[in-house]
Amino acid sequence: MHKMTWCLVLVLLAAGVRAAPPSASEPNVKKWQDETGVWHYGDARPVSPDAATNSAADAYRRGDYPAAFREYLVWAKQGDPKAQTIIGQMYLRGEGVGQSQSSAIEWFRRAAMQDNAEAQLQLGILYAANPGMTPSQREALLWLRKAAVRGSAEAQYLLAGRYAAGQGAPRDDPGAVNWYQQAARQGHPGAQFELGNFYASGRGVSRNDKEAAQWYRKAADQGHAGAQFSLGAMYAAGRGLAASDPDAAQWYRKAAEQGHAEAQYNLAVRYLNGRGVAANPQEAFRWFRKAADQGLGLAELNVGRMYADGQGVARNDVEAVQWQRRAADRNLPLAQYYLGRMYAEGRGTTRDDREALQWFRRAAEQNLPLAQLELANRYLEGRGVVLDEAKGTQLLEQAAQGGHPEAQIRLAERYLAGRGVARDPRIGLDWLRKAAEQGDADACYQLGAAYARGQAVGRDEGQAAAWYRKAAEGGLPAAQQALAGMYATGVGVSQDDRQALQWFREAAKSGNAEAEFNLGVLYAVGRGTPRDLAQAAAWYRKAADQGFPAAQLNLGLIYAEGQGGLPKDEAKALEWYRKAADQEWPLAQVLLGLRYATGRGVPRDDRQAFIWFEKAANHDLPLAQYGLGMLYANGQGVIPDGIKAHQWLDLAASGGYAGATQPLAAVAGQLTEADRAQARQLASQWRSTHVRDAKPN
Length: 697
Hints:
This protein is mostly helical. Among the domains are: 455-509, Tetratricopeptide repeat domain (Serine Threonine Protein Phosphatase 5, Tetratricopeptide repeat, Alpha Horseshoe), CATH 1.25.40.10; 511-583, Tetratricopeptide repeat domain (Serine Threonine Protein Phosphatase 5, Tetratricopeptide repeat), CATH 1.25.40; 587-697, Tetratricopeptide repeat domain (Serine Threonine Protein Phosphatase 5, Tetratricopeptide repeat, Alpha Horseshoe), CATH 1.25.40.10.
């Protein structure tokens, strides 16, 4: 028994240095245990790698990776988790040792088993980045979760991303939000950004734009480009904070300067439109180009358009085609349409209708209304394709259904006229209304005209005025003229000469001749403004120079009387009368006839008087009918004809010209009853075949 015990003691003594740590009663004795488990006394162990400075760290900082590796390896082999993590990282990067992912994983795993959060994070990242790696993606989730629980913000962020994407575990949006929140509270910009996205979309949480904007701002303030872009978008839309174009532009710029393509694009759009920044096409082009160089299709499209239009850059059709093709090859329908236009027009490339049609069709197949309308027009006109009314109408309807106002208007016109479709005014009016409700000025005008005429709807002058106003406010001169006319006459609105003057003036600014004439009339009579014949004459001339016959007539009258600061000039009066008369303006014709009949301003010429009276008489102008009757009665410019004289004097008298009554009676007294009957029959026949024209003022 004693011998056995002694032997055991001997064994213990032989191994005593390795078997047990020093006694707790020796606190002041220097001691340390090496990687073999041997305890050392009386000498100092190297400074721990946990210390702020040590020889290994110094070696690493000065780039002496082999030395750093050797020293860290000592600690790693002794089981120090931090050193093990560092060794893993050096293997991963190939610093001081041959690069080896497997060795890195080995050392990371040793440290991770000791709950080193950084090592756990690195293991999670490596497994996540290598889906085929054994054990599996679940292993990535396991290690990331361990690191996340230990407070690693990066691990929390990555773990949240895997829950959000359903990688290694079923998709779990609330779980993702939870981990994003934990990382975000630690100041992780990526987590703050993603948390903003979740609040903005209402994914995993109740939608809260204010909360989204707050998290975006936290990340943006740390320089996160995605968050800066999103914060700009929130300012642009007024979501979660007050809308502000300058703030939107500011944050877009911050993200753009970091190379964020979408931010570059949005900043370019703002420079193009002058929203939040001063309009600057050159700056717009510069930012579009930056985004386009990163392959953003919409930016490529806009670079192409700016080259094509010479906007912000010198026009270059060849460059335009190249950029449009890039965007078109990305299957952007608008780029395909514009590329088709370049081929159709032979700009920047050889004109090629077949190539143009190909691109138009590709865009149309993607339901681009603009391309559908283009193809519709080609089929309806037989341009580059076989004329096909049915195909054209079908494409027109597709474009109209897609909301294109021009297509809606053209389709409305076809239904109203029954061209290519069964005539259906109700459907036509519905399409017209759809275009009008989009604010299309032409559609508003046509809808107003439909109500004014009672076309396909009950006549409603109030509705007519309302739609005319929308079109007028949209800048359509014809609508401004029509609305002014309603104010001038009090039709559909309360009569208001000032409003009439205002809208006539708006239409006149764009050169609308009818509005210029009417503006002249208001100045001539002093309606809505003090009477001013000089202004009247000036506006008459503007309209007259455009060939407006009523203005030519009135300008002639002003010259005839020497009014409005113009000298009395019979020759000028005659010149303007003739211009109006040549356009079949009855009152000008009768005045011209009177001049020739009386020799005023022109040598007397009964034949010319007869020609002009006859023209005006057939427009049912009683004064001209009287003059024509008198010429027949007296045989001036024509062979005397009592029956013809009676016919025209009868028409003049029945038309309200009192001066014709006495000569009619005199002529009748010289005719037989049969002649008088024949004359009355001729007058009756004339009335049945001539619609009484409105008498010009």
